[in-house]
Design goal:
21% strand; 6-stranded parallel β-sheet; 15 strands; alpha/beta; 2 domains; Dihydrodipicolinate Reductase, domain 2
């Protein structure tokens, strides 16, 4: 039984699912057997490729006895209802980040999974990226002493990619905090041990045509004394991928000729046309991102420890020690997001939870809200829902 592929049902066949496809297609440890999606075209495409069953409702799919675990890849505001339905059916859950939009929903989701006795994993997020996972292992080894400071920053065109109207409304999970900031928060919390104490932050909402947060900068401190700065801009001017060996976020080569393409594509588009343009990025629309050639990343990250600084990059980690420097190469796996499947298989087959549990996702969501609250009030916000990185014994 433990060597059999984990049988997965998918809820939502949009962009998030498309980005997981290279991993689902190339990792033999998982098998897609069912999908629930409102668009018949997407269900038909799923059935044609995977031979699984398509359902119009989440509840129907969750009742499928062949499904062992469910990947929930629906819009943020739907996560709570979908997690509740899947947990009630006794299935393990991988839910796309963020866990939810509100902390009240996050509390309900964590409780639902705990009461049902199922694993709730929040991801994929960039805290699963192979260089981040290796950096965490180096930190846990104690080789370079304690983490003292982390700098994380990213400049992208996120705000000008095709959006549905609700993706530009903060109260519905729109803007850069819930979709992008949670990646950065997850990474920094993992590297610093998880238990953040407070947030001081400012945000920017500078385009009346995109009336939500497009940028933020935050200072976060941790219980053990470490602190981190987090900066993000999605306003499509400077592109920090030039500092990541010209590798795009998803691991493909960055084409400098496409600079400004996101803004140009939206010129003179009304909201309905923009929403329609977004559907071309969903499963079954024959639009897929370039094949990854490197590990995924989320912008420049530098970890300062007692005896070395670690620079994370798509190809590995550069170590700047007291007297010498060296590099750790981390080649791309056959399945680009293999570490996500590592976590899912360990949870389903061996009852081993990864760091990115429901409680972890709730803690990162709390930081998102704290950034917004600090920016609004000008005050330092104390965090109350944080959790640490749980190191468990390997039994595989």
């Amino acid at each position: 039984m433990t060597s059999e592929p984990v049988r997965i049902g998918v809820v939502g066949l949009g962009r998030a699912f498309v980005l997981m496809l290279p991993t689902f297609r190339n990792d033999p440890r998982v098998k897609l057997v069912a999908a629930a999606a409102p668009r018949e075209e997407s269900r038909a495409a799923f059935n044609a490729e995977f031979g699984g069953r398509g359902y119009a409702s989440v509840e129907e799919m969750a009742a499928d006895p062949e499904v062992e675990a469910v990947y929930i890849a629906t819009p943020h505001q739907m996560h709570a209802d979908h997690v509740a339905a899947v947990a009630a059916a006794g299935k393990h859950i991988l839910v796309d980040k963020p866990l939810a939009v509100t902390l009240e929903d996050a509390d309900k989701m964590v409780k639902a999974a705990n009461c049902a006795g199922v694993h709730l994993i929040v991801g994929p997020s960039h805290s699963f990226d192979a260089p981040v996972v290796r950096a965490r292992a180096i930190i846990e080894s104690g080789e370079f002493g304690a983490v003292r400071m982390v700098q994380a920053f990213n400049y992208t065109d996120f705000l000008y990619r095709p959006r549905r109207p609700e993706e530009l409304r903060t109260e519905e999970g729109g803007g850069v905090l819930f979709s992008q900031g949670v990646h950065q928060i997850d990474i920094v919390r993992l590297l610093c041990g998880g238990r953040a104490r407070s947030i001081t932050a400012m945000t920017g909402a500078w385009d009346p045509q995109r009336p939500t947060e497009g940028a933020y900068s935050a200072l976060m401190d941790f219980e053990d004394g470490a602190f981190a700065t987090l900066t993000y801009s999605g306003y499509a001017h400077f592109d920090s991928d030039i500092w990541m060996d010209n590798v795009a976020e998803l691991g493909g080569a960055k084409d400098p000729k496409k600079y400004g393409a996101a803004r140009r594509a939206l010129q003179n588009l009304h909201p309905e046309a923009e929403a329609k343009l977004k559907t071309t990025r969903t499963y079954g629309a024959d639009t897929v991102p370039p094949a990854a050639e490197n590990n995924e990343h989320f912008g420049p990250i530098i970890v300062m420890c007692d005896r070395a600084d670690l620079r994370l990059r798509p190809g590995g980690i550069d170590v700047f020690g007291d007297a010498k420097r060296h590099s750790i190469d981390i080649p791309l796996a056959d399945a680009p997001r293999r570490t996500v499947i590592d976590a899912l298989q360990a949870a389903v087959r061996h009852d081993i939870a990864p760091p990115q549990t429901g409680e972890w996702g709730r803690a990162s969501l709390e930081v998102c809200h704290a950034i917004l609250q600090s920016a609004e009030t000008g005050q330092k916000i104390t965090l109350t829902r944080q959790c640490g990185v749980v190191v468990q014994e390997e039994t595989l």
